[in-house]
Task: structure prediction
Amino acid sequence: MSILNAALARMLPLVPKVVIRPFSKPYVAGESEDEAMAVIRRLNESNYAVTLDILGEHVNSEAEAETITNAYAHIYDRIFSENLDCNISIKLTHIGLDIGENIAMNNLNILIEHAKASENFLRIDMENSPYTDQTLSMYKRLVQKYSHVGVVLQAYLKRTPNDIAILNSSGFNSRICKGIYRESPDIAYQDRIEIREHFADAVQRILSGDGYAAIATHDLKLIDTIENWILENKIEKSRYEFQVLYGVPMNGKLEHLKAAGHTVRIYVPFGPDWYDYSIRRLKENPKIISYVMKNFFRRK
Result:
């Protein structure tokens, strides 16, 4: 299947949008802000918290970075005015990091002002390894200005335990994910069992310290392992949350987590860049293709 997935991934740029759209539609909350807000309201009504992401990354001009920054700023204002349970996740390359760190930092400062005004939270997403040091450095600078800022750490990176040791404090808030980018075995674990073990270890390290863990995985076995550890160690529910991507089937696990009193947050992507985003993600991790196709035909 991996050979087939890789072959399909190479062909994806030749596939027209009309063919790709059914694959992405269940997992993307539309192209417009209004469509995204409707999804947020629906999820809030079902007692899910939300984090919102405008699809896209690697902008090539200051004007593009400014447009994305202004869009996020407006979303902060709208979340506040409509009393929604939603925060924001951003990629630094989407607000200008490839153009210059100073540009991305200036745009982050704009977003922080809107987050402060609405008493909301900002999550800085982690991109592939060339950006890790810059991302963590900018996060540390930003959290000194505003405490309600978090970052993302990837369990498959071998550096992650050390990053946790450096960052873990009462103000530390990290989403832990397995990691989707294709990285060298020199810096990242490749075996799925090993990655699962390091994911659980990362969460336990944070919660054994003073930080807050956003546990972002669709791995049902891993969720069970972490939930059992949380219960056994009597971790306060205010110190963690479970996160999943919008639209991913979870076989009733989210309802179980909510019923048990855990916070469950849905990561909701939206925007006109859904096609390019889908192509990039499928090419970066061809294993997703078989997963998407399986769920596509299940829905059919």
About this structure: Residues 62-81 form the longest helix (20 residues).
